[in-house]
Amino acid sequence: MKKILNLALIGFALASCGGAAKKTTEEVTDSTLITCEAIGKVKLNYSHADLEKEFGVDQLVDTVKDVEGKKVSITKVFKDTPDEVTVTWAEASAPFTKAVKLSVSDGSGPYHLAEDIKVGSPLKDLVKANNFLPVTFTNFYANVDGFAQIQSFNDGDLAQKYPCLGGVLDIDRTDNLETSLLEEFKKENPANSNHKAMNFIYANVVELNISAK
């Protein structure tokens, strides 16, 4: 009986170690995930004080940026590194207590969805992860900067799993796109990824973001 008990204890100990190892692996993976709660270790519900406590004042840079003609306050966490995350605040000035958006735009950064979508991913991969339902976005050619803002995942898998998810697209290249088809596409705003012209327009994700609801 004693021998059986010892074997049981050994088995339990090994199982516990395996569980701990699995948990550690999951935690490492989670530190690069984009979810509706966080991008990596930066949580959407963090205040500026929380960021200071979690990462240190020296890892934060407060500034402003222009969004559609309006100045908004932001904080860059890990600025100028692949790990950079931009926090957009609800408040115009300090103290900052409520984040409205987190975003990443470095293609060499580690952050990704569980579906392995990240900055730099082709639009077609985004559509695939959306169970091949179209992605709706502002027309590239309607914006001075040439970027397209993702507006909807049209009740696809990404819409169901990430109601918080947004992003920005940019054209990488066009290939054998007829002028008449391009002109037809330019009239669409918003546009959809299943438009005929998108068979010849190759676009990539240049920003991923999550927003508070």
UniProtKB/TrEMBL annotation:
Residues 1-20 form the signal peptide. It comes from the Bacteria. Keywords: Signal. This is Uncharacterized protein. It comes from Olivibacter ginsenosidimutans. The lineage of its organism: Bacteria, Pseudomonadati, Bacteroidota, Sphingobacteriia, Sphingobacteriales.
